[in-house]
Specification:
The structure holds two protein chains of two kinds.
Chain A (H helix, E strand, L loop, with lengths): L5 E10 L2 E11 L4 E6 L5 H9 L6 E6 L6 H11 E4 L12 H6 L4 H10 L15 H17 L4 E5 L7 H12 L4 E5 L3 H5 L3 E6 L2 E4 L2
Parallel strand pairs in A: 3-7, 3-8, 5-6, 6-7
Antiparallel strand pairs in A: 1-2, 1-4, 8-9
Chain B lengths: L1 H12 L2 H27 L2 H21 L3 H16 L6 H26 L3 H9 L7 H20 L1 H9 L1 H6 L4 H23 L9 H10 L3 H26 L3 H18 L2 H7 L2 H4 L6
Helix pairs in contact in B: 1-12, 2-7, 2-10, 2-11, 2-12, 3-4, 3-5, 3-6, 3-10, 4-10, 7-10, 11-12, 11-13, 12-13
Classes of the chains: A alpha/beta, B mainly alpha.
């Protein structure tokens, strides 16, 4: 099994004065699939964003493949090796054709095949803001498959099935968990969590192992 | 009457300053609407207001030091554009800072004008522009923008499309957003300064923002929006120029009004009508909303 290991130690993230993530330690082995659950506002999304440097931690360290990013080039590399599915995919301030979203992952062909498998392959010419929430989420999932094909070793997925109907959730979970990489998925979807190797729960910024 | 007026326009067009003004507007129509696409795309409308004020400060400094005022305006705007780039992470962060920059720049400009003892009316004339005084140097600046801005858009079209769509998506797709934002903001600032002679600082929008606003409704990707913006810019500028000549009106306001009418007209066209002008493949797709 491929993928990269992720190690967090003493990670602290703040939104202003509020501690969103408190002293989180987490070891995820290469290729492991981890579901991150917990109530809204418990810090799951912030923790995921901190891995990508979209939220700068106030303390602690996050290593991917044993490396801590340094400088702009380091963060660019971190974002290349960690594919990301955002919680609320932006419909954007400016029109972007879905095909360009698929290409942005680095492997347009692989993303296109994934899009076809997820039933949104023929929407590539459409601007993203004309897609429904579920179609948009499938596009982002297909993009993430493209990222993995282009060399990403970790997938950070933030509620990737939240906008999907039941059959869509199952289909998306299948695509997500079949990827040969380390997966950390924030989800409220029981079925998806049950299919993961580990389930963690976050509450008020702290992390605990459920199973 | 018509024949006489037409002859008048013909005679006017033989004058070198008029020819130069027409050429400047044509060249400006290639570069500046693309800048407008950046302003609309990054949602940084306050930035251009601030840049107009900074340009005025540059002009005041030029008058004080005896250097070329336009050059000073360009440099001041470029520096200010680069200076505000770190604030561009969120549009809200930028607009507050722009208010501050605007007030400080205009206050400093007034102070410099007072200290230098220059007739302030001379500097403020730039607020209204003086298209017939367009010089060779201005033409060069506009030409450089007309080549550099669309060139950059073509060369970096993937990165710019992602950045204008969503900053974080661009970031996670390996786009160096800080560097690209800095470059775009400097270009916006320089373009605002460069366009001042044409319509005046107050009406720079006619050349930059308004064509882009109309284009955003017509196009469905960065490239098609940019192409629409340039097309609308060329039509508006040439129409405005000839209407102004023909009726002996100031070109700045005429350009703004024509561009404004185009924006309104485009927004009044029903969406389904617009769809049929676009790529046919997308219109026939079933929607599964």
């Amino acid at each position: 099994m491929g993928g990269l290991d992720v190690r967090m130690s003493g990670v602290v993230c703040r939104h202003g004065r509020v501690d969103a993530v408190r002293d989180v330690d987490l070891q995820v082995a290469a290729g492991q699939r981890v579901a991150l659950t917990g109530t809204n506002g418990s810090g799951k999304t912030t923790l995921l964003r901190a891995v990508l440097g979209l939220h700068r931690p106030a303390g602690g360290e996050i290593l991917v493949d044993g490396r801590a990013p340094r400088g702009a080039a380091g963060w660019a590399e971190r974002r290349r090796v960690c594919a990301w599915i955002p919680q609320k995919p932006a419909t954007g301030r400016f029109p972007l054709p879905a095909g360009e979203l698929l290409a942005s992952g680095g492997d347009r062909a692989a993303a296109g095949r994934a899009a076809a498998r997820l039933g949104v392959g023929d929407l590539a010419d459409r601007p993203l803001h004309t897609l429904s929430g579920g179609q948009l989420q499938r596009m982002y999932l297909a993009r993430a498959v493209g990222c993995v094909a282009a060399g990403a070793g970790v997938l950070l997925a933030d509620e990737p099935t939240a906008a999907l109907d039941f059959s869509g959730q199952e289909e998306a979970a299948g695509v997500l968990l079949a990827l040969p990489v380390t997966v950390v998925v924030v989800t409220h979807d029981r079925a998806l969590a049950d299919r993961c190797d580990r389930v963690l729960e976050m509450a008020a910024g702290r992390l605990r192992e459920v199973r | 009457m018509n024949a006489l007026a037409a002859a008048d326009v013909g005679a006017l067009l033989e004058l070198v300053p008029v020819q130069r003004a027409g050429l400047a507007l044509l060249v400006a129509a290639v570069g500046l609407p693309v800048i407008g696409v950046v302003i609309v795309g990054l949602d940084i409308m306050p930035v251009r207001f601030a840049m107009m004020h900074v340009a005025l400060l540059g002009i005041a400094l030029g008058l004080l030091t005896g250097l070329d005022p336009m050059l000073c305006a360009l440099v001041a705007c470029a520096l200010a554009g680069a200076g505000v780039a770190p604030l561009a992470r969120t549009p809200s962060g930028l607009s507050g800072a722009m208010g501050l920059l605007m007030s400080l720049a205009i206050a400093a400009a007034l102070l410099v004008l007072a200290v230098s003892g220059v007739n302030a009316a001379g500097a403020f004339a730039l607020l209204w522009g003086s298209i017939l005084s367009v010089g060779t140097a201005d033409l060069w600046v506009l030409t450089a923008l007309a080549v550099a801005v669309p060139g950059l858009f073509w060369w970096r079209r993937r990165d710019i499309a992602l950045l204008l769509h969503d900053r974080e998506l661009a970031q996670s797709s390996g786009v160096r957003v800080e560097r690209l934002t800095l470059l775009l903001l400097v270009l916006v600032a320089v373009a605002v300064a460069g366009a001042i002679k044409l319509t005046g600082a107050l009406l720079v929008d006619a050349l930059t923002l308004l064509p882009a606003l109309a284009a955003r409704r017509l196009g469905r990707s960065l490239l098609s929006i940019t192409a629409w913006a340039v097309g609308i810019g060329v039509v508006v500028n040439l129409t405005g120029f000839f209407v102004a000549l023909r009726h002996d009106l100031p070109p700045g306001p005429v350009l703004v009004l024509i561009a404004g009418v185009v924006v309104l007209a485009v927004h009044l066209i029903p969406e389904r009508r617009i769809r049929s002008w676009r790529v046919p493949a997308s219109a026939s797709l079933p929607s599964s909303h």
